[in-house]
Amino acid sequence: MQPYYAIKLKCFILRLMMGCSLLLISIGITVSIVQEIMESYDINSKLAYILGLVICALMVLLGVWLIYQAFHFERFVFGKSKSGYVLLKKDMQNESVVSAGDLIVTDQFLLLFSLHLLNMCKVIRLDNIIACFEDPVYGTVAKPSEYTLFIYDRDFKCHTIVLDAKQSEAGHLAKLKISQTHPWIYAVSRDTFLDRTMTKNGRRNFLNEIEKRKYKMSSHVNVEAEAETEIDQMVSDTRKKLDFHSILGKTDKNQQKKK
Asked: Is the pLDDT of residue 50 over 70?
């Protein structure tokens, strides 16, 4: 659980610092506006006073919200349901967990830390990932100087993780883990993926293809073989119904019954 707690501590510190800073700044501006109103009120600046107080009130609300988020990390990451956190806690006990800087990959989840104001920690189920690509940037040495990981969810939203040279190997292991535990995820070419998903029909067809691959690989059922067997059975049944000799035989029997 150490990588998870590291991300949690980072989110706590940043949110607490931003929340307290917003509160201090807004309170200071509010005091200055009130002092100016009390000492030298200008009727022409009435609108400016009102806008300033409204902005300060919004800053206070945002600061309180960030401080509240800092002390309720799991609630904002996993929602009201505790099942996600229980599953993640169970996965984190596994030795196969891969951690690369601000990225954690377990058997079922992907945790990503970002400097987003209201959503610093993103938790994505691996079942909701449809594509994963890596883009290592090589310098003068064989080891990558920068490593970028592109992850696409079912809404075709791209999550970009940029790692430095020290974390490039761990990033590559994270990509391998995602591809190995969920082999139906597309990981061949990012350019091809973008070309195929430019339109709504292309996205719909791609999702159908992913669902087909997922069913085929997870249930170990050969879908194409099943379809061919069903078609052969249908053709055989149709041939039996339209068989000339069987129809002729039925006609002869009917004539004999009439006689």
From this structure: yes
